Amino acid sequence: MARAGLTADRVVEAAADLADEVGFENVTLSALARRFGVKDASLYSHVKNLRDLRTRVALLAAGEMIDGIATAVAGRAGKDALVAFAGAYRTYALAHPGRYAATHTPVDPAVGAASDAFRRTAEITYGMLHAYGLSEPDLTDAVRLLRSTFHGFCALEAIGGFHAARDVQTSWERALDGLHTALEHWPRSSERKEEDHA
């Protein structure tokens, strides 16, 4: 029987908090049960297993992150939208390291396809890039560039990986200047060139 006061939402929220404190990879059902003062078995009324719990944390974090990004980019376009998007991404990644790590955990494709958070993330990201005049397959390439840049920068910043004297915020802003320039002058892919001449 489920312990009084425990719900799936409370369990997942607590797991997300625990992830921020000890690292997503260290979240276990036993550690979570100790936080609630219950036996491991009590949690199985709310989550199927550790994989299910981690998937739920990933979906929660993805939703929180895109909510912040959506608010930041509302009414903006072009470089303003890019800077706002990137700023909200970085803020979330640094403020919630465990949750952020969860957003990179593999999720069952069917679960991802049914996720409102994943859908909104794609819509907002691709919508921002459409404003640069990009279409497929260039859109996917550009998304991968942005994701790699944002993630790499945030991951290094989080572990104190930048040792040069230059201000990290200045480097971040210059990186965004570079991305904006790249997006404005994106080279057309060979696939699009072939379509134009078909």
UniProtKB/TrEMBL annotation:
Gene3D superfamilies: Homeodomain-like, Tetracycline Repressor, domain 2. InterPro entries: Homeodomain-like_sf, HTH_TetR, MT1864/Rv1816-like_C, Tet_transcr_reg_TetR-rel_C_sf. This is WHG domain-containing protein. It comes from Streptomyces mirabilis. The keyword Nucleotide-binding does not apply. Pfam families: TetR_C_33, TetR_N. Residues 28-47 bind DNA. Keywords: DNA-binding, Transcription, Transcription regulation. Residues 5-65 form the HTH tetR-type domain. The keyword Transcription regulation applies.
